[in-house]
Amino acid sequence: MSRTIIDTVTRDTRLCISLSGRPSNIGTRFHNYLYDELGLDFVYKAFTTTDLPTAIAGIRALGIRGCGVSMPFKEACIEHVDVVHPSASAIDSVNTIVNENGELHAYNTDYQAVADLLHRAQLRPELTVAVAGSGGMAKAVVAALRDSGFETVTVVARNRETGAALAQTYGFEWQPDLGAAHPQLLVNATPIGMSGGPDAEALPFPEAAIDAAEAVFDVVAMPPDTPLVRAATARGLTVVTGAEVIALQAAEQFVLYTGVRPTDDQIRRASEFSRS
Predict the structure, then answer these.
(1) 205 near 228, Cβ under 8 Å?
(2) Is 74 a catalytic residue?
(3) Which of 23, 135, 197, 275 could cross-link with 46 by S-S, CB 3.0 to 4.6 Å?
(4) Does residue 3 have a pLDDT over 80?
(5) Are strands 129-132 and 185-188 parallel, antiparallel or unpaired?
């Protein structure tokens, strides 16, 4: 089904953007759907950049209202904003920038989305967990796991410096690879499985580990049915997808940008439209 998102753009239309290493249409369609649904004079556009400092300076200089931040910019952008709010400072990772009259405020809505989805999926805190990755999204995941009561968590990352530091910060263990371990919950917080990337068809965990798991949580949103999600679904495991993460975190971004909170039904429809 086609839908006209916006009829006119004027000088008063407020612009929101996203910065990502591999831009997709998911956020663009989600936000623009809700702007249209709620009659808001906003428009949303996805970008990438090879010059992050200048891109963020452009947000300030051009009066861009808000910016969603995705891999690989979530940590690097911190030094270029003015105010880092607790949701971002607690994990040194930003996924949302809001321009308040030239002052750039940084937040992280990923953390709350992950915590909410752990609860919704009824994933028990006594499960053993492996988290692949040590970047900005991995920080949000590990922090949410800790604050949700999970105690037996291993950060699996080839980068010893960042992986060990992340694990130590939250009182967990680090390993360079999963080895022969068989955790009950597998969480992918890397770009493995992301469409358009070099590992689009790869699995972040060995098949033997997926065979032994009870649940899989993949933060990759594009495509929603990543190789890991497909493998877990075929085995009948509990599955949480990146599409669910992006819908919840985007809804909170929407509120920060506009001051308007959509209903749960509006968020659901916007999420469905974003993936159609």
Answers:
(1) yes
(2) yes
(3) 23
(4) no
(5) parallel
